[in-house]
Amino acid sequence: MSDVKKIAVIAAGLSQPSSTRLLADRLAEATVIDLRERGIEAEVTVIELRDLAHDVMNNLLTGFPSAKLDEAIAAVTGVDGLIAVTPIFTTSYSGLFKSFIDVLDPQSLTDLPVLLGATGGTDRHSLAIDYAMRPLFSYLHAVAVPTGVYAASADWGSGLDSASSTLPARISRAAGELAALAAVSDRSSRVTDPFALPEGFSPVGSFGAQ
Amino acid sequence: MQFGIFTVSDVTTDPTNGRTPTEGERIKDIVTIAKKAEEVGLDVFALGEHHNPPFFSSSPTTTLAYIAAQTEKLILSTSTTLITTNDPVKIAEDYAMLQHLSDGRADLMMGRGNTGPVYPWFGKDIREGIPLAIENYSLLHKLWREEFVNWEGKFRTPLQGFQSTPRPLDGVPPFVWHGSIRSPEIAEQAAFYGDGFFANNIFWPKEHYMRLVGYYRQRFEHYGHGTAAQAIVGLGGQAFMRSNSQAAKAEFRPYFDNAPVYGNGPSMEDFTDQTPLAVGSPQEVIDKYAGMREHFGDYQRQLFLMDHAGLPLTTVLEQLDILGEEVVPVLRKEFATNRPAEVPDAPTHASLVAQRDAALAASAADAPATV
């Protein structure tokens, strides 16, 4: 097993710079620090979905990714931990975020530790992490850590140590949960066979071969 | 090396004038296009099978038999025959019939189809797509090779002492290709039987298909049908040509931009970079396709999609003139250059009969004399 763990970050913010990217960077930094405290180095790749927006839509229309998108997909699926952060639009993850998830092979996130993050104007939408994002990653058989981190605009002005539920405290707790799972993941060093046949497959079928 | 055309049989509005041909016009046009293919020296005409508008080709053997009656050398094939939702018994009968009527100029390509509701329309479950393709073909293979078939499977009623008629022409079944765009199971199936594998690579980047074809070649060798280089490979292609590149691009762009499969998606330039689509001068098309053997190895059949997306008949016929007169003759020379002697041509009825006779003679020579 490699000593260096790979972490990918998806930021689905639409403006540049975005508070979504800001939160994503904070989560990534905290994860790296936590892993380092465990004696593990981390390599972080950040994917800003805005840069891939046209490629994602073309993939939905044609069924195949451009070279640039293919690289991003490989970067997201072949890691030991994923930090997925989206703005909350109209009660749920953004369309761009979901479109990117839709072009992934549904099996490709299996076993992947994921930290869920979201941003919004007010804290009224903070449960969107749990009613929208979490079921999505459950369906994909990813392992979402218990703490999701939602940052409303007001959170960016809260103090560091006023209470345990401040944004920095939530970031630190969630990053610790992700780091614990990423530390023992071997996903980034796995070799998968794209032509692996299903177990028990026979070219003549299980019936009619008598 | 065989060159030909394949059609999906779409009835599509011409985006340049808003005119939509009737089904009747497109059906007659397809016959004209197939006859033109023979006239310009192409080897193969392949027709798709669909069961929903805007496609007309629900009954390929009817169309192909009608074309067979009006042509002499053209090989009639399919792109594809739905091995999942058709009864394999009916496929055995229909294509043996076509084989007789066309004097052995028929082969076919198995596919699973790309329209989900076809499965329930024909009483099947789409989640069983691969098992259906595997079991149905297993029965079809048997029906063409054994006189009386006793069979029991999961997906159709059992057979006792069933003989499909007519028997294959000269006792030799039509050659079968298996088409797949992503399933290793189908590549495995094609390799197991020593059948052909057709990668319809026209809508996706070549790298994916290079791996899939490579896998099929390796498995073909594994199952003892010859070396990997001797496996029978076919590829899809797509081209639009005018004497100069700018004219070709300008004329084809509205069809590209509105095409059912990739319209309103990537730019034509991106798509031609990423896929086998070639839009330009005949020389540009030659250059792109002459390079295919570098990626896929020496192969046996190259089919071009030429008549889709609302292109008018006159344009399609002009395209076939250019393809047959300027492109394919050059490609034939290019592909023949340095082609290893061990690489076979695509099997034809004549070659399969000769192969069968040689095998019979060899086994007769081996057998002890009985006087």
Helix share of residues of chain B? 40-55%
- CATH topology heading of chain B: TIM Barrel
Q: How would you state the average pLDDT of chain B, rounded?
A: 95
Q: Classify the secondary structure makeup of chain A into a structural class.
A: alpha/beta
Count helical runs of chain A.
6
Strand content of chain B: 5-15%
| Computed CA radius of gyration of chain B, to the nearest angstrom | 21 Å
Helix and strand layout, with pairings?
The complex is a heterodimer of chains A (210) and B (371).
Chain A: E1 4-11, H1 19-37, E2 41-48, H2 53-62, H3 67-77, E3 81-89, E4 92-93, H4 95-103, E5 113-120, H5 128-139, E6 143-144, E7 149-152, H6 167-183
Parallel strand pairs in A: 1-2, 1-3, 3-5, 5-6, 5-7
Antiparallel strand pairs in A: 3-4
Helix pairs in contact in A: 1-6, 2-4
Chain B: E1 2-7, H1 23-39, E2 44-47, H2 60-68, E3 75-78, E4 81-82, H3 88-101, E5 108-111, H4 118-121, H5 129-143, E6 149-151, E7 159-162, E8 176-179, H6 184-193, E9 196-199, H7 206-222, E10 233-241, H8 245-258, H9 268-274, E11 277-280, H10 282-290, H11 292-296, E12 301-305, H12 313-336, H13 349-366
Helix pairs in contact in B: 1-12, 2-3, 3-5, 6-7, 10-12
Summarize the structure.
Chain A has 6 helices and 7 strands.
Detailed description of the structure:
The complex is a heterodimer of chains A (210) and B (371). With 210 residues, chain A is an alpha/beta fold. Chain A is 37% helix and 20% strand. In chain A, helix 1 packs across helix 6 (167-183) and helix 2 (53-62) crosses helix 4 (95-103). Chain A is globular and about 65 Å long. Chain B has 371 residues and is α/β, with parallel strands linked by helices. Chain B is 44% helix and 14% strand. Chain B is globular, with a radius of gyration of 21 Å. The model of chain B has no long low-confidence stretch (mean pLDDT 95). The interface between A and B is medium-sized, with 23 and 33 residues.
